Every structure is written in C-alpha cells, then in structure tokens.
Amino acid sequence: MGVVDSVDVRDRVGELLAAGTRVVNLVGPVGIGKSRLMAELAGPGGAVGRPGTSGTGGPSTVPGADTTPTDPFHDVRFADEVNDEAAVARLTLPAGPLVVASRRPLPAHRSWDPEIPVAVVHVEPWPDARIAELVAASGVDDPASTRNVVRLSAGVPLLARELCRALRAAEMADAPGAVVHAAVAGVLRRLAVEDAGTEEALLLLATVGQADGDLLTVLGAGPAFAALAESSVVVAVATGLAVAEPYRTVFDLAHEWRSPVGHRTAATRAAAHHGRLLATEHSDRARADRVAQALFLTVPDPARRLFRPVTAPAHVRPAGPGDADDVARLVRRWARWGSLGARRTERLLDGWMRTTPDGFHLVCDREGHAVGLANVFPVTDRAMATMEPLLQQHTAVLTPGKGAFIGLATYDDRQPAARAALFRFLLAMGIQHNGMVISTPSREYQRLAAGLGLHAHGATRDDVLDCGRPNQVYSHDFETESLPRWLDRLRGPGLAPVVPDDAGWVLRQLREALDHVHEPLALARSPLLAVAGGPGSLRDLLVGAIGELQAGPAAADVEAGEILARYYLERRGGHEHIAMRLHLSRATYYRRLHHGLARLARPFVVQSR
User: Fold this and answer.
1) Contact (CB, 8 A) for 261 and 251
2) Cα distance between residue 517 and residue 540, in whole Å
3) CA distances from 68 to 7, 23, 26, 605 (A)
4) Residue 1 — very low, low, confident or very high, per pLDDT cuts 50/70/90?
5) Closest CA relative to residue 250, chosen from 314, 182, 157
6) pTM listed for this prediction
7) Which of 364, 349, 452, 471 is nearest to 411 (CA)?
8) What are φ and ψ of residue 279, in 5° steps?
9) Cα separation of 125 and 102, whole Å?
C-alpha cells in the first residue's frame, strides 16, 4: 500500500468491506497510530471498542461518508488493539463486518480460528515531514534535535512523542543516551501487555542484532526465547530472532548508554558465537548469513548499518523480461546518483544486457515494488568483454571460474531494509563464488571497500564512466577457510574478533587480557569472553588460575604463578626487575613465564575447539 494515512486507510478498508470482506485487520507495530486510525474510521457517531467489545457506527461513522445503504461503513463494528492471546480469544465476531486493530496479524495468534478469512491492511510509518510536524507541535524547536527525532523514530509516532517528552526534561538536555533510554522505557511499558519480563532480553537482542536460543543462553537470556518469538517487535530471521527496526536501533542505543560494559560484552560474545559456527554451516547462504552478522557486530558505521538484520519485508530476486522498465529506471537513478555520463551508462547497460542478462537482480519491498538494483555475475570467459573496460590495466585480478563481479548496486535511501537486503545478497554472491571484484567511481563505495578490508588494486587509466574521476578496482578472496581471519582483521574499537582454534592466537589474547585485568571496559572487548563469560568472570578466572599456580605442589608452577602475579596483578615492575627479585636467570624466568601463560590458556584452547 505504501505510506498509509487516514484517507488511504478509509479507502482501502472501504474497498474491502464493499467487496463483502467480513474481517478487516489493521496491523502495525506498537505506536504506529492504529488507535487513532480506528477512531477516525469509527467517526464521531461510532464507538471504538476495547478487546472483547464492539461499537457500531451508522451512516455517519466516517466524516463525509456516503449516507446511502451501500456505504461500506454501515453497521461496521470496531475492536481496537487486540494484542495478546487472551484478547483474541475473547473477541466476539458479530454477524456483520468487523474491523480489528492488532500489532500482529490475527491469523498469527494461536487463538484465532483459521477458518475465518481475514484481510490484512498494514499501517505503514509516517513520512518524515509528518513526524517533523509532530515534533514541532510538541514544543521541540531545535533543528538538530528535530533531525535526530525524525531519524530515530523512523516514522513511528510513539517513538517521536517519547523522544520529544524526554528532550523536554531539562536534566536530559546534554545527555542524548539518557533521552533515548527514557523514550525506550515508554515503549517497553506499552509492550509489557504482550509479555512482561522480556524487557532485558529485548535490549540484549537489539544489541546483538539477531540470536538463536543458544546465543541467548550464553548471554543469560535463554529462557526468554519463546516469549521473544511471540513479541510484536521481534521477527524471525535466518539465524534466529531479531528486533524490528526502528525499535532495534533505539533499544541498542539505550542499552549502550545504560550498560556500556554489558553492551560490549554482549556484542563480543555474539561475534564469537557466529564466527565459531561458520565452519559448521553447509550452504553458501548460511555462511553468508553468519558472516553478515559477524560484520554487523565487528565493523563500525557506516559499513555496519549495511549488514544489519533485514527485519522488514524486502527481498532480492532475478530480473526477468517483464522488468526492463524497472531496470532502466534504476540504472538511470544509479547514473544520476554517481553523476555518470548518460552515453557511457547506456553503452554499459547494453553490454550487460547482451552478455550477462541474468546478472540483474531487483530489490523489492513488501508490495513487490522494485526499490533497488544490483548487477552482479560470475567471472566467466563469456563475461570478460563486459568487465575489461571497467578494469582496464587491472584485468589480471580476474580468474575465470572464480569470483563474482559487481557492476552496480543502487537502492532507495528511504528503504533501509532494502539496503541491508541488497548488501547481504552481494556478500552471499561473493561467498558463493569464493571471491569478489569491484570497479567503482563512487567515493562512498570506495570508503566501504577500504573499511571492509578489500584489496585495493588502484585506479583505472581512464575516466571509465565519464564522471570526472577514474574507477577504483578492488578484490577479495571469500574462500571459507579465510573468512575467520578476515573477520579478525576487521574488528573495530570496542569489539573483538571470533575465537579460532589456534593456541598461539589464544596466548596473544590472554596476554592482552592480563594487561588489562583491572579494567572492566577493556576486558569487555576480549574475545575470550566467548568462553569465560562477562568481564568479571574473566578476571576471576585469570586471578584464580594464577593463585592455583602459586599454591601448587610443583616448584615450576609456583615460580610461574609468582611471576604472573607480580607482573600482571601487582604491577611490581618489568621482567628484568622481577627476575632479579626472584633470583632467576633470564632463561629460567622466561621459561617459567611461558609455562604459566600456557597453563592459563589451557581452558580457552580446549573449549574453543
């Protein structure tokens, strides 16, 4: 339907009722404005019923409605906000038509009789301009604050109102995290009617992006999995559950402000979880899902937001013969966005159409409208003539039979779900074909390629696309065994890589943890949390292990424990100083130090396999 306002809803619902539909279900997330829409539909002469009740509106139910007996709103009953199983079970169905509002479609509830057909009308987010009007009406007139509210609320009026309410509190004026946290508290209160007690689990799920039951158990929220699966702001994705946008973003920000150590710990452990499962996945698509989630948890923005979970209806499909107009439209959009020369772009499009017609893929929204486009195809001898002009002197990066070539990628900026679906699809193509080659004049995509650690081969000799600058060429190897090492290199500040089965690597991480054993925030970045738990647990494990060495029966263990305690726990000086104090030769001292570190690393190496 696109963006729905009160007129759109009345028209759509009226069409369904006039066609004889018995039950029309207005569906939308918490705070999207369903109650207000229901009140407008019922009109001043009608009564919007609560769950289990109903109101009957006559010919004047909707302002300006046709007063003839054929008016589709004649004798319609309304039931507002039927959101839990008990309310659905109590809902009485009248003989005439019924309009019901709910956060999830009625057929998704176990209590709903599947024999009763339902026409679902999705209530979409408000446009930015309308949210801006709401912000102005609330008394918030600062331009920067207005932009932030519009961005964070993403068309959900409840979020906008709660953010504005928090902004008006003087004590929060200089604390953006506190503003978001207060706004989230208001949303969580509204969600409590569905299942009280999942608030902490929702914040954790928002932080890690998506999680299965095992990961939630690792994070201490395993029992909440079933309740989360029933939440109206949670959707099922390939590797578990995810909080739908924009709720995920604001829940994540609130959690980060309230519990920075817990936030970092959750992200670190989730990254390790997905990384360790890479080797167990047997399909390219499943591996791509794991890699995308690991990228979301390890790289900083702007690359991070490209790989967030796809929680709104969006999908990628091959373009067919009937999609020529959409393909041409989106190619023109790509050309305008990059200030590309029209003639060069048309020639390029013609070449792709002739040699790699199956390379075009459309990104579609809920209604199937094309809102994005990718041209990506395997590197083959047949496609070489199409790729060579875009690579020029860098054609040596091509190996026929290996890798996927990305010719273009474009999307509607107003469709974040489509954007995430597009980039996850491109990643999947790279993993499916064990590599990726890119040639782009876009500075945005060049920064993205650099941020993701792709190998830069340099610029083309010529301005390939007549845009005033040469293309830059990048490639990357996506062989399965190289994926963990790549993710390891990409870790951003505050986030750690996955845990590999490598004793030397574990020793390096162990030394890093010991260097910061008294600093909880630094320990929260350690990938060893995937084994040890939280920062406090990791510290206790290391301190306890050193104490056990000091109290052990073997002289080598005792000396190793004393070295580790003096150097890492008590900070009594450098290695030479401690060796002298313990009356140990340099060689003996370092043998004992390495022996102690190896003993401390033992549980991590064993459990990471």
Assistant:
1) no
2) 9
3) 20, 22, 25, 78
4) very low
5) 182
6) 0.78
7) 364
8) -70, -15
9) 15
